[in-house]
Write a structure and sequence with these properties.
Blueprint (H helix, E strand, L loop, with lengths): L7 E6 L8 H9 L8 E5 L2 H9 L4 E4 L2
């Protein structure tokens, strides 16, 4: 069997979770973010895309 290679995306936190809904804080933690300007490389899956969509006002995709 051959394994498919999944795409990798970089996500950078640009907004603070202070005074945000607790669910949004949990979404950031789910993405592995927590401090401003933190960058994470994540697999491009539907689950990750959904988390990014929920907190799109606090994160941005970083190009290489």
């Amino acid at each position: 069997m051959t394994k498919k290679k999944t795409a990798v995306i970089k996500v950078k936190q640009i907004g603070s979770p202070i005074r945000r809904d607790s669910k949004q804080r949990l979404h950031l933690k789910g993405l592995g973010l927590g401090k401003l300007n933190a960058i994470r490389e994540l697999q491009d899956t539907p689950e990750v895309q959904g988390l990014i969509r929920k907190v799109r006002h606090m994160v941005q995709l970083v190009s290489e």
